[in-house]
Amino acid sequence: MKNMKKLLAALLVVVLAFGLAACGKASDGKTHLTFQIWDVNQRDGMQAVCDAYTAKNPDVVIEVQVTSWSEYWTKLEAAAISNQMPDVFWMHTNEILKYADYGMIADLTDLYNDEDPDYYKNHFSEISLANIQGSDGRYYGIPKDKDTVCLVYNKEMFDAAGVSYPDETWTWDDLTAASQQIYDTTGKYGYMAYGDDQLGYWNFVYQNGGYILTEDKTKGGFDNPATREAMEFYINLQQENWCPDQNYFAETSPGTAFFSEQGSMFLEGNWNLLSEMQNYPEMQGKWDVAVLPMCPNPAEGDGKATISNGLCYATGAKGKNLEIVKDVLKFFGSEEGQRVQGESGAAIPAYIGLEDTWVKVFDQFDYKLDVQKCVDMFDYGVQSVNNASRSVWKPKVQDELLRIYSGKSTLEDGLNNIQTFIDTAEAE
Amino acid sequence: MANNSKAGKFAKTEGMWGYIMVAPTIIGLIVLNLYPFIDTLKLSFTKTKPFGFYEFNGLTNYITMFTNADFWRANLNTIYFCLLTVPLGIFLALVVAVMLNTKIKGRTAFRAIFFLPMVVAPAAVAMVWKWMFNTEYGIINTLLGNNVNWITNPNVVMVTCAIVAIWSAIGYDAVLLLSGLQNISKSYYEAASLDGATKIQQFFHITLPMVSPTLFVVMIMRLMSSLKVYDLIYMMVEESNPALTSAQSLMFLFYRESFVAGNKGYGSAVVIWTVLLIGIVTAFQFWGQKKWVNYEV
C-alpha cells in the first residue's frame, strides 16, 4: 500500500507539472497574445500590422496563427465553448451574427468614444459597418478590409478573336457575344459561368434589380421576377457551347481552367489577384481585370452591381487580456494600422481613403494589372448576402441549384424550392 | 488464521494492481468511446444551437429523418457502396493472398507492394485517383480513349469510389488472409495431392474452409468500414458536384448536417441510426457464420 501511495504521489506530481507548464505565464514578463487567421497568403501582412503595434508597445508579443478555412470555424466554436478563444481573430460576415447574438464576441461599439464618437461612421463605408453589426445593430468587430468581384479576362484570346477588351460600357450581351466569338475562332471557352453565389449569380441578380434576401432579411427574393430572370439567364449560360457545364466545374475550377488557358473569362474576387500574379508568373501580361458587365435592361436601377464583402477583427467577450486586446484592436482600426495592412498587399483596407495603398502593391510586377477597376466598383457595391439562418439554407440552396443544373429540377420548381428553403430556415 | 488473513490481503492488493493495470484502457474507453456515445444519444433527442446550447425536442429528429428523402437516398447509397466493395474486394483480396502464399520470386517485395496503399493517407489516395479519373485531363479517359464522367455522372460516381476503396483495402485484407493461410498445415495438401485432388479442388475443399475464420473477421471489418465510408467520398466528391446526392453516404450526410448546416441534433440521429444498422448487419453475420465458418482444425 505504501508503494501505491508513492506511485500515486509521483503521478500527481507529473500531472501537476504538466498542468502548470501549460498555463504558466511566460517568463519574460510580457503579455503574449494570439491572433488567429485563415488565409496563409495574408500571414506576412498580418505580421507586419502586429509588428507595427509591438514596436510601440514592447511589452506585448502577438503571435499570428493560421488555420485553414475548413477547420477554422469548427475550431473557433470549440474554443468559444471552452472559453479559450484566441485573443484576436478574423471574423467573417457568414458567422458574425451567430457569435454576436450568442454574446461570444466583445461589443466594440464604444472603442473609439474617447477619440471620436463617430469614428466608425467617419472612416468606414456603410457596407463595412453592416458587416460588423450583430442583430442588435451594435458593432462587434473592427472592419479589416473590403473586397469586390471583378471580371478577369485573357487578353491573348481576345486579340486572337478580334474582340475588344471588356470596359465600363460592357453589358451581358457583350459578354455572351464576345464568348461566342472567342469560342468560334479560338476553340477556347468564353465566360465560365459556374454555380457559385458570391463569384457568380448573386452579382447578376443584383445587376438586374433583383435581390437574394428582402430588405429586412427575413424572406428570400427568389419569387421576385427580376431575380428569376437573372437566375434564368445565368443558369442557361451553361447550355451555350462556349461555356463548360457544371460537370466540368466540379473537376476543374474556373480559376484553374483560366490559368491553364482553357477559358477566356471568369469572375474573381480581388483578394485572389495578388497570389495569382505570384503563382502564375508565366501568365503575367496575358490577362487583365475589368469591371463587371452590366445588365442591359434592368428591372430596377442602372444595371451595375458587384458583391462587396469585408472581414473584421474581433475578440472574445470574456478574454483574459481584454483591456490590452482592445488597445490592439484600436490600433488595427486606426489609419496607421490599416495603412500597414494595405501596403503589405494583404487586402484593400476598409479605412476610407487608403485604397491606393493596395493598388500600389501591384507596382512590383512588370505588367501593371488594372486593379484600380476593383476599387472603382465600390461605388455600386452590394453587401454580401447574409442573415442569421444562412448556414442552414446555404447547403440546401446549393443542392437545389445542382439539381437544376443537372436537369433533375426544372428552373421553375427549383427556384420555388430555393425560396421555400430560405423562408422556412430557422436561425440556429 | 494469521496466514489466511495475509493471503487475503495479498489477494486484495493483487486485485487492486489488476485494476490499476487495466485502468488506462478502461479510462480511455470511457472517456473516448462510452461518454461520447451517450452524449451523441442524448444530442439526437435535442435541437442543438451554437456553442453547445441545446433543448430537448423528443423524437422530432427521428421523425424528420425517417420522412426525409435525402436520408433514405443516403441509406441506399451506402448499401450500394457495400454491395460494390465487400464481395469483390474480399474475393480479390483472397486471390491475392493465395498467390502471395505460393512460392514465387520476389514474394516479400510483392507483399510489401500490395500493402503499400494502406500506408498512404486516404486523403492523398483520393486526390491522386481524382486526377486520374478527371474527365478532360485524366489518364484513365486518355488510355480508354473515351469521355466518361467518372466523378460527376450520378450513375457512375459510386462505382468510381468503389474502385478506389477496393484498391486501398485489398492489401490489408490480403495480409490478414495470408496469416490465416499460413496456419493451414501442409499435410492436408500433401494428403489431397496423393489422392489426386486438383489445385482447384484443394482450394475449395481445404483452403476455403480452413481460412474461413479469418475470412469471417475480414468480412465483418470490411462491411463495417464500408457502412461508415466518409473520408474517401468527401475527398472525391466536392460540394459543387452535381452527382453529390448520388454519392452521399450516411456518414457524409451526418457531416453535412452537423458541420455544414450546424444541425448537430439531426446529425446525431443519423449516427445512432448508422450504429443500429451496423449492429443489425453484424448480428446477421454472426448468425449466418454458423452455416459456413469452420472452427475445427
Question: Keywords for this structure?
Answer:
heterodimer, A: 428 residues, alpha/beta, D-Maltodextrin-Binding Protein, domain 2, 13 strands, 45% helix, B: 297 residues, mainly alpha, MetI-like fold, 76% helix, 2% strand
What would you say this structure looks like, in words?
The complex is a heterodimer of chains A (428) and B (297). With 428 residues, chain A is of the alpha/beta class. Helix content of chain A is 45%, strand content 12%. Chain A has 19 helices and 13 strands. Chain B is an all-alpha fold. Chain B folds into 2 domains: 2-43; 68-292, MetI-like (MetI-like fold). Helices cover 76% and strands 2% of the residues of chain B. In chain B, strands 1-2 form a two-stranded antiparallel ribbon. In chain B, helix 3 packs antiparallel against helix 9 (199-227), helix 7 (157-182) packs across helix 9 (199-227) and helix 12 (250-260) packs antiparallel against helix 13 (264-292). The longest helix of chain B is centred in the first third of the chain and has 42 residues, at 2-43. Chains A and B meet through helix 3, helix 11 and helix 18 of A and helix 12 of B.
Topology of helices and strands:
The complex is a heterodimer of chains A (428) and B (297).
Chain A: H1 2-23, E1 31-37, H2 43-56, E2 60-66, H3 69-81, E3 88-91, H4 93-101, H5 119-123, H6 126-130, E4 142-143, E5 145-146, E6 149-154, H7 155-161, H8 172-186, E7 189-191, H9 197-207, H10 225-236, H11 246-251, H12 254-259, E8 263-269, H13 273-279, E9 287-290, E10 306-308, E11 312-314, H14 322-332, H15 335-343, E12 348-349, H16 355-361, H17 372-376, E13 381-383, H18 390-405, H19 411-424
Parallel strand pairs in A: 1-2, 1-3, 7-8, 10-13
Antiparallel strand pairs in A: 3-11, 4-11, 5-12, 6-8, 6-9
Chain B: H1 2-43, E1 46-48, E2 54-56, H2 60-66, H3 69-100, H4 107-119, H5 122-133, H6 139-144, H7 157-182, H8 186-194, H9 199-227, H10 231-236, H11 244-247, H12 250-260, H13 264-292
Antiparallel strand pairs in B: 1-2
